[in-house]
Structures are given as C-alpha cells and as structure tokens.
Specification:
Blueprint: H1 4-8, E1 18-19, H2 30-46, H3 51-69, E2 76-79, H4 82-93, E3 98-102, H5 107-115, E4 120-123, H6 132-137, E5 143-149, H7 161-167, E6 172-176, E7 195-199, E8 211-215, H8 217-222, H9 260-276, H10 278-298, E9 316-319, H11 323-332, E10 335-336, E11 338-340, E12 343-346, H12 354-370
Parallel strand pairs: 1-10, 3-4, 3-5, 5-6, 6-7
Antiparallel strand pairs: 2-8, 7-8, 9-12, 11-12
Helix pairs in contact: 2-9, 3-9, 4-5, 10-12
Amino acid sequence: MVNWLAVRRHFPITDRCTYLDHASCGPMPKPVSCEVLRYYRELEGDADFSWPRWIKRREEVRQKVAKFIHASSDEIAFTASTSQGMNFIAELIAGEGAALANTLEFPATTVPWIHRGTTVQWIEPRGGIVSPAQVASHLKPKIKTILTSYVQYQNGDRQDLEAIGAIKGNRFFVVNATQGFGYLPIHVNRARIDFLATNGYKWMMSGYGSGILYVNRRWLKRFRPSSAGWRSVEHPERFENRSAVLKREASRYELGCPPFPHIFAIGAALDFFREIGFSNIEKRILHLTHVLTEELKRSHVRILSPSEPARRSGIVTFEAANARHVVKRLGAKRIYVSERGGGIRVAPHMYNTESDLLRFVKALKEEMRHS
C-alpha cells in the first residue's frame, strides 16, 4: 500500500493550486529539486573539480534509464528535448524512404521528417483511435519507417507498441514516448523499437531541458551521424584536432559538455518513482482518470478519449463549448488544465486526489453554465 498523501507532500504546488496539466509540464517534486540543487552547490563550491564525480553520476543515471526501458546503457543518450532526439533519428534514416504517421501526432514526431523532404503517408484515426490493424493496412512496400507516439497528446490514445512492433517487418519503428514515459511500461526489445525519443519535463517531472534518446545497437553500428562534437569521439580528453573517431555508443550524440542538472534530475525522478513503485504509479494515474471520466459522464459531458482499458492513459479529453475561455476561467480559480484535441484536456498525476478531480468538475460545471 502506498501512502499517497505522504507522496503529495513532496509537491509544494498543491498548497497553491489544483494542477491537472501534466501532459503539458509536471511540477518538480522535492526529491528531484534537491538533487538539482546539490549539483549547483557542488558547482558553487568546487567548480570543475567536481567533474569526475559528475561524470560517474551521469553514467549511473544512464544505467537507470536503460533499465527502465529494458535497453542497454550504450543505447542511451541524453538530449535537451524530444525534438532534438527526433532530429538525431531523422538525420540517420529520413532518406531511407517514406514514413507512416497519423494525424493525431504532435509535430515533434513529424516535422523533422517533413523538413528533410521525406514523403509522409497519413493514417486518419477512427473515432480518435489508431489501431494496429489500421497501421498494418497502410504498410505498403514504399513505407520504410513507422512513426508513432506511445500516447497521443490530444486525446490520450495509448498505442500497443508490441503489436505494432510485431507487424513492422523490416521497417524502422520510431516512437515518441513523451506522453507515456515515467508511468507506463516500455520494453524496447519486446516492441522491436529501433529508435525512441522522449523528454523528462512532463510525466517524469524532471524539468525542461531533460531528454532521452534510445538507439538500437544495430543502428549504432550501421549509421554514421551527421552531427558530432568534441565529446562524440572515443577519447575526448585527448583533444585531438586532426581526426574524429566517433564512439560506438549512443552517447556520441552528447556533443559537448553534459547538461548535468537535467541528467541528475532524470536520475532523481527515476529513483523517486522506483521507491513508490512504477506499477503503483501506473495504477494510481489510471484510477484517477477513471474516476474523472465517470464524473464527467454523470455531468453529461462527451468524452473524446478512448474508453477501452488497454488504450487508456493519463490523459482525459472531453468536448466543451468555448474551451479556451473555460480553461482561462478555470485558471483564474487556480485550476490548471489545457485546451487540446477539440476540447479540454485533463492530465492528473499520482499525487493528485479524488478531491482535486471533484473540485475541477464542480468548477467546470459552473463555468460551462456561465459560458
């Protein structure tokens, strides 16, 4: 049993507002901010003499990330964002042939390919859902890459990654894990994922500037990246100017000096989540979205998110007239949600309570009556 009220005390934001917008950005919990501040205190007191222990801690975090997604540490790189990771991926394989995506996608998934002139074939969701069967029906020979988000940002549709991986054939499988990373399980090998990009500032709550890139070892051997920096090479401390022998690990994408505070935040978040239990967090969030969905149904609100249990996530989107105005009015009451997917998007986290949801629904009813 988890004492969720004790977990809630790690989130000072709860003293000031009802925050239900984790699909946009998550507030940093105290154990994570303490680790970030630890870095800055070390920087303040020791400056570059802290470098060896920072490098050691970075590698420890790399191992934690790899364990979380069932990868090897040499397949993990730290980036600044999902967009940066997707661009690193696109520079390798955008020229291999056409890509397949769906129209629910967040642009970070697709813009890097469009920018490089890749032909993108589009799947139109049916009832807000993109099924593996729909993906399979679009897998023509010219399709060389499958692009998908683990969870769609607009309505929370959760993809069956293993089912898609089972039908990909000899194509590249590229996943934007942003809206599922931290609270939903990811097994890159079972799902036959070739590349994965995500950030840490949403559900991981480790702040802006924290990102992760996974590259299957097979492609590290085959492809040579277009981008490289002084820390991309096998022996960066030799400061060699006349040659560039790149690392054989994904860390070659860490082009310059590491963004230590962002990396340490990811590590602290993983430690915090592991202590609570990843499966406990998943169950808690899905319980809260179920409670919210039932309350909205009782209020005769049309839910736009999938109802099938296997497709549910931490996102609940529902239809609302004057959604932008309603969201703004709720914000004035210190209740924070977003306008997305043709309605209002609500995304609670593990520390939220049923009382938070009831407060939101009560305020929503008032605003919808007025509007």
